[in-house]
Amino acid sequence: METFNPSSKQTKTFEEVSQDEWVPEVVNKTAKPAMAWKPLMKDAQKKLDNAELLIKNAHLQSQMSVLPSEVEHILVYHAERMQQRARELGEVAAPDETVPKSARAEKIERNKAKMIAELEDKAREMIAEGRRIRIMMSKQQDPDVNRLNYLLSQGEVSIHKIESRKKLAAEDWMQEYEIRDSKPETVRNQLPWYAHFHYKQEADPFEHFSQAHLKRGSQRRKGAKTQTTQEQQGAQVEPILRNSIPPV
């Protein structure tokens, strides 16, 4: 039933919920227009076409002096955009969605489903490749705490105590740990690394070290004495990497 208000010039519709009982009809607000499927499909295809170039660029960047996490982040970022586009395609309504659907609508649905699957597959590939590149770069670059923690979290390295503490000087006892590659067959790299923890006393608890640092395997046994000897001999003094390990 409809009523007309002469003052407001508005028509209201009522619906009967029981005998002689009428309530205003609830009118749904106009739904937002659905996203157009054609632009989404076009953009999705563009993302797929660019995926291999992004992976190729990531491999090129892996050979430069950049942070491994940054290279991974670029691939993950674009992979997540592909996943978002796949979700949007799954939600968008194709034209002519009648029941039974027309042949055209069914073809559109098949193309959408195929595109969604391709986007999701390529996104997973890019995320996996980003992780693989980051691991490879982390192993190839100089040791530092961030890279060590990441490789440990991925199960890519293990830490092994080497013998007992050695006395190097008065109030200087050194405990050495070897950081080994858990998958040495995967990539040529700088591992093993070595961690040197220095203590004032032989029996000091582990966390009471006076200083600690990570070293390259090639410089494991090189230190201040090596540099002093080189200087005395007039040879070029080799820079020795000692990346600090913060206090516990």
TrEMBL record:
Organism: Candidatus Regiella insecticola 5.15
Lineage: Bacteria, Pseudomonadati, Pseudomonadota, Gammaproteobacteria, Enterobacterales
Record-given protein name: Uncharacterized protein
Record's compositionally biased regions (Basic residues): 213-224
Polar residues biased stretches: 225-235
Record region (Disordered): 213-248
